[in-house]
Amino acid sequence: EEVASHFGSGFDFTMLVLHGDTLDDALALTDRAAAGAxxxxxxxxxxGFRAVTSLLPPLEQQTEALEWLERWxxxxxxxxxxxxxxxxxxxxxxxxxxxxxxGLDLLGQALERDRPLSVDEIDSTEQGKRLLAQYLRKTxxxxxxxxxxxxxxxxxxxSAPPAVLALADELGPDAVVAGTNVLNQRVRQIxxxxxxxxxxxxxxxxxxxxxxxxxxxxxxxxxxTPLAVGxxxxxxxxxxxxxQANFMNIFVSTxxxxxxxxxxxxxxxxxxxxxxxxxxxxEAGLQETGKAIAAAALSTIVGxxxxxxxxxxxxxxxxxxxxxxxxxxxxxxxxxxxxxxxxLHRPKPE
Length: 350
Description:
The chain has helices at residues 2-7, 23-42, 59-75, 78-92, 101-111, 119-123, 126-133, 162-171, 180-214, 217-241, 252-274, 279-305, 313-344; strands spanning 14-20, 48-50, 136-139, 142-150, 175-178. By secondary structure, it is α+β, with helices and mostly antiparallel strands.
């Protein structure tokens, strides 16, 4: 976070994975991707990019550069002329020219080149091999090239940038968007789908077990009221305070089904035991059960609440969601369920 704040970008990046049947095809497609990345940089969608074309340009581009160098060598001052002019310029400024000789020799090697640069040539040095391995690799079906794209301000950490997806569509079927943000987006979709399915199946099975216990639809629905309303409250509070669902805390919702249903179930069982008693006895019995429910809820909140002090964000949010779920279902069981029972209760005749 400190690096991203200082430099305006972090270590996260999105990748364009490009495939070509031949090396020239892969480099040509990479060159098109690099041109598109430069366009996105001017539009503010990217802060920078890295591609193999900075090390190994496409053959067509290399050929144009070699032709230009050939004309320059024939018409220009030549490498020796550049060195003489440089020596004269630095001498006039009172600077010794000798320390620059190695750099001028390397420049001379570049300007005297008369053949295209090849993969084998770069791969022949240890440093070149390490650099090349980050961006280009030969595969069974041809060649694979990777273009690393860096978004500004460390954006798009949870999903792929739309502009990059549009660029991949422009490049055709041989271009695929990849990266940890793409993986996170896909896994998040899978987890949310599975969590919803698990929650639905769990709710239905719990409702069926309660129905087998009561053998009455009305009591079953009353027992499920704290669970349904409590989860709704939990999700509402999460949205209000900006607590996002993630891979870890999403399954707490399914756990709340097993925890929260107990509170309403105990209250309904107590009511059924004393429903034929007088109003005072009924009220006293429900208050007694309410104290037990409150104690059970507080112990659950304290137990799961300890996760809120974790240094790991995933565990922290798991603790927050568990506390919200247990608190909400307990409050509904202690307030809404007795209120509904009072509306449905028929007083014992004198």
